[in-house]
Design goal:
With 432 residues, this protein is mainly alpha-helical. It has one domain (2-13, 25-420). It is built from 17 helices and no strands. The protein has helices spanning 2-8, 23-44, 60-72, 76-99, 108-129, 136-149, 154-181, 201-213, 215-222, 227-266, 276-303, 309-314, 319-334, 340-351, 353-368, 381-403, 410-420. The relative contact order is 0.17.
Amino acid sequence: MAFIGIIALEQAPPPAVRTERLPSLDLLRGIAILAILFANMPIWNGNLNMLGGEPRPASLLDHTVMAGSLFFVFGKFITLLSILFGAGLAIQADRGLTEGDAYFKRPFTGYYLRRQAWLFAIGLFHFLFLWFGDILTSYAIVAVLAYCVSWVSQRNLWWWIGACLLIVVGWLMLSTAATALGGGGSGLTMPPPSPTRPENQAQQFIRSLMYYAGTEGQTAIFRDGHLGQMVLFRAGYLLIYAFQFWMMLVWYVLPCFLIGVWLLRHGVFHDFEGHRTFVRNLILIGLAVGIPLQLGAVLCYVIQPNGSLHLLMLYSIGALPLSLAYLGMGLYWSHSGRLPWLRKVLQDVGRMALSNYLLQSVLCNLLFYSYGLRLYGQVGHAVSLLLVLALTIIQIGFSVAWMRYFQMGPVEWLWRSLADFRLRPLLIQKAG
């Protein structure tokens, strides 16, 4: 956490409220949303189990791809997206402070709460019917918490950030110790039934639950089952996720949001040239802190591919400094003038990040589940890279074509229209 103190040393009054769209945020958001598909792919294709069951056998090439993903991707881009969500929160809050509700001229807080309520509803639908790794429900809750905290001073924001991250570190230490004492296993096990002592109903029920928490059971649901079974499974997982969220995840996502708030109000996104040295230091510190921690995560994976210690390190504070380094690199690229066509393409993806996030789920459902191509459990990490490439091309093509005619993505339009209680304009108004 040393890099937090170094970053917090540079304090300045927040810049005047500005309402223009920031291309650098769109660019970073587009990069993050595409990389999240890569990070989620091992769960989509059934090679990793979110409930901790034993992973499927993998080749040396698959293990190499997985190790590279652990180092460069896993945990980093969801963290980056959380930071960008916080920056967007600051833009909305600062604008609302001076303009109020642009459509109804009412206090901004009510409008903001409506937005998050509808985002939670969209996320809950997504969670139950498409993807039990949904982040929208979490973002909707954390956005409200971050909004309540965002009005403190820039310096006091870092007290909140540090306190939350200390809670995360504490939980990780307890979890790591518990895993080590338990032998480092990754999933629950239950002895086979005894032929001399039949199981009672409670034992049979527990065994049934453990079956569906394992690789074989989830294959039976997602590759061979029907939608009702999938929804029931996700509903059960939602109970587990809710416990995990309030115990630890909220204390990680909230400081990421607050870091985004701090960066936005510090002027990093509005005035890159005036903060070029700060951004360079952000990159150097992020790499210096993040690389050793992620090397440790990869080492744990190499030593024990079927264990969970590396996963604990994966979602540790090591992902945050690397995410900040990625953010800094993205800012440098955004203001470099290099590859303008690629920047424009990724900005289009970022401007409709919510639509693309849900599109990823729709496409992966069609690829992996029983009502699609039934590839669940059939492809390894290496082959999945080709699928990620194909889906990325689809998302980019869809985004570029859509943004040529419309002001925002289709789900963004629906979300904002629901929050406004009226249909927002969608088509681009051409001059003349």
